[in-house]
Each structure stands twice: as structure tokens, then as C-alpha cells.
Automatic annotation (TrEMBL):
Swiss-Prot/TrEMBL GO biological process terms: proteolysis
InterPro entries for the chain: Ntn_hydrolases_N, Peptidase_T2
Binding-site list for substrate: 235-238, 258-261
Pfam family, one: Asparaginase_2
Site annotation Cleavage: residues: 206-207
GO MF: hydrolase activity, acting on carbon-nitrogen (but not peptide) bonds, in linear amides; peptidase activity
SUPFAM superfamilies: N-terminal nucleophile aminohydrolases (Ntn hydrolases) (SSF56235)
Keywords: Autocatalytic cleavage, Hydrolase, Protease, Signal
Active-site positions on this chain: 207
Name of the molecule in the record: Isoaspartyl peptidase
Signal peptide residue numbers: 1-24
Natural source organism: Pseudidiomarina taiwanensis
């Protein structure tokens, strides 16, 4: 905790006494839950071969099981979400880490953020090009710096100082994403204004994220992405913006988002869902559906979220054809889904 050094032990005790959120850990064991996503978008049965379908599901299961294992053995929700996200970052299937999309200029610029619902501490990075695991760097920003968000060259310097693994930008090159960039650029030239709407199939929103609640009742959320294909001019999406793509608060819920980031920023989606629960008393399903279907969709914002609330309820609404997703609640087995007609 970065504030410990600047606060006396007495002040910390006083703060803890005033804030029930900080005191989430007590002798009682809370029900655990974890949910993950690997992006939402035009993901339909027609777009995936049976082999791809199987491979995506296997990777999602591996990630959700890894996070669940940590929670089941008494580990922290923060640790669980990082473990799950890193498995997805290391896979070329998802638009985060290894499988990050290309910018217009043919490189990769990655964004990520993390938030701890017990302390409301958060860390975020934007536009990093050589950090193998952006979610690990976001965690370092949260725990080892006095800042919340670092970007570009400064973030890379901090990553090096923290001893994180650095890679050449070409580490993130994949044929599939390169072809995607070429298709998007060709279409952009043809149909400037309509390009975004028309190209949904190629943007595909493969961002990754995780939310969890641990045995102490603490929630955490994290999101990691390569952003949107053919993004330009140092564009930053919602994923590193606390409140837009990521939010966690022990008094309400934890959320990780995926979708067309500009809308998620303007509608402050992740925090809006949790604040509806907190101030309006809505349940996780009502709050999530209100924002994804009633607010975002009419505005033109496509995508989805995964939510775990402070009681361990999970909801994963999305307004696209599909969203790669998986959850494990309590002792239940993993439920892995891709398309809209499957279990939420
Ligand atoms: N939300 C991400 C962004 O706008 C994209 C995604 O979810 O795939 O950068």
C-alpha cells in the first residue's frame, strides 16, 4: 500500500475504524467467485471454426480455473485476477499482450488497469510497447508508485526499474492481426466515416479482463488490451481508465469491460454500474443490463462487461453477438460461453 509510508499507524487505524470497506476481512469466510472475459464483438458460430471454438474455450477454462484455484486456497482476489489475465495475455487468441492488435502505423500499443475494491487503490498504464505483461505493470503502478496512471516512455522506464520482463515490439506480431489491420485500412480508405461501424467484424474487441471476490469479501478488477485495430495518434481507450473499463469497490461490485472504448469512457460504464447498485440499491443484473442495454446500446456503444458484486453474484451482459467469457462461483464447475444464446 503506497500510502502506508506517509500515514502514521495511528492514522491508519483511525481510517480503518471509519471505513467499513477497509475492514472487509473478518473471521467469516465469504463465498468466492471469479469471472473473466476475452472480448466481445461480432463473434458468431459462422465466424469461428469448430477447432477455434474449442481452443478459445480451453484457454478461457484454463484462465478461470487458475484464478479460482487461488481463491479456493484462500488467496486474494487481486492475485486471482492477475493470474487469470496473464494466461490470456500470453495467448495469441486475445487482443492483449501476445495477441495485441496493430495500430494504424503497424506497431502495438498496450493499455491495462487494475483496481482493489478494499482500498480503492488503482494502477493503470497506457500506450506501452515493450512490456510483456501490461497487467503486471498496472499492478506495480498501484503498489510501488505514488501515481495511478503512467503512459508511454515513462511507463516503460518504470517497468524496467521494477524488473518486469521487456520484449521487442515484434513479440506481439501475429499474422492474424496483421491481416486484420490490412483489411481495416483498405476499408477505411474506401469508407472513411462509416469505417468504424462497418468494420466491427475486424475490430472484434478481444480485450481481456477478470473480476473476483475472495474469502475475505474483497473484490478486485483488471483489464488488459491492445486497443482497437488501426488506432492512431496515441489513442487511449477505456481499458486503462479507472471507472470506464475497470472498477472495484467492496461496497458495490467489481467490473471489467470490453467494447468500443470511446463509448465506455463517455458513459463511465464500469463505475456507473457499481454506483447504480450503491446509490439506487439495484441488484447486479438490473444495474448491468441498464447500462449495457438501455444506456450504451441506444447511444451506439457496443460491447459488454463482467461483474461480480460484494455478495459474490456474477453477471456478464453484452450487447454484441458474442463475448468470450467464463465464470466459477463458489464450488461450482467452470461455465465457459461464447455466443449470446449460451449461459450468461
Ligand atoms: N475496449 C477496448 C478499447 O477500446 C477494445 C476492446 O475491448 O477490445 O481499447
Amino acid at each position: 500500500m503506497k500510502f502506508i509510508s506517509s500515514m502514521s499507524a495511528l492514522a491508519l487505524l483511525a481510517a480503518a475504524a471509519m471505513s467499513p470497506a477497509i475492514l472487509a476481512s473478518d473471521s467469516e469466510t465469504h463465498p468466492i467467485a471469479i469471472a473473466i472475459h476475452g472480448g466481445a464483438g461480432t463473434i458468431s458460430r459462422a465466424n469461428l471454426t469448430a477447432e477455434q471454438d474449442r481452443a478459445y474455450r480451453a484457454k478461457l477454462k484454463e484462465a478461470v480455473d487458475a484464478g479460482h484455484q487461488i481463491l479456493a486456497s484462500g488467496g486474494a482476489s487481486m492475485e486471482a485476477i492477475i493470474a487469470a489475465i496473464q494466461i490470456l495475455e500470453d495467448s495469441p487468441f486475445f487482443n492483449a499482450g501476445r495477441g495485441a492488435v496493430y495500430t494504424y502505423d503497424g506497431i502495438h500499443e498496450l493499455d491495462a488497469s487494475i483496481m482493489d475494491g478494499a482500498t480503492r487503490e488503482a494502477g493503470a498504464v497506457a500506450g506501452v510497447t515493450t512490456v510483456k505483461s501490461p497487467i503486471a505493470l498496472a499492478e506495480k503502478v498501484m503498489t510501488n508508485s505514488v501515481h495511478v496512471m503512467l503512459s508511454g516512455a515513462g511507463a516503460e522506464q518504470f517497468a524496467a526499474e521494477q524488473g518486469l520482463e521487456l520484449v521487442e515490439n515484434s513479440y506481439f506480431n501475429t499474422d492474424q492481426r496483421r491481416q486484420q489491420l490490412e483489411r481495416v485500412k483498405a476499408a477505411m480508405e474506401q469508407a472513411n466515416q462509416q469505417a468504424m461501424a462497418q468494420l466491427d467484424v475486424d475490430y472484434k474487441f478481444g480485450t481481456v479482463g477478470a473480476v473476483a471476490i475472495d474469502q475475505q469479501g474483497n473484490v478486485a478488477a483488471g483489464t488488459s488490451t491492445g486497443g482497437m485495430t488501426a488506432k492512431r495518434y496515441g489513442r487511449v481507450g477505456d481499458a486503462p481508465i479507472i471507472g470506464a473499463g475497470t472498477w472495484a469497490d467492496n461496497e458495490s461490485c467489481a467490473v471489467s469491460a470490453t467494447g468500443h472504448g470511446e463509448y465506455f469512457i463517455r458513459y463511465h460504464v464500469a463505475a456507473d454500474i457499481c454506483n447504480r447498485m450503491k446509490y439506487l440499491g439495484e441488484d447486479v443484473q438490473t444495474a448491468g443490463d441498464a447500462v449495457i442495454f438501455d444506456t450504451l446500446l441506444p447511444a451506439g456503444g457496443t460491447g459488454g462487461v463482467i461483474i461480480v458484486d460484494h455478495e459474490g453474484n456474477v453477471h456478464m451482459p453484452f450487447n454484441t453477438e458474442g463475448m468470450y467469457r467464463a465464470k466459477r462461483v463458489g464450488d461450482e464447475a467452470a461455465v465457459v460461453s461464447i455466443y449470446a444464446d449460451e449461459a450468461q
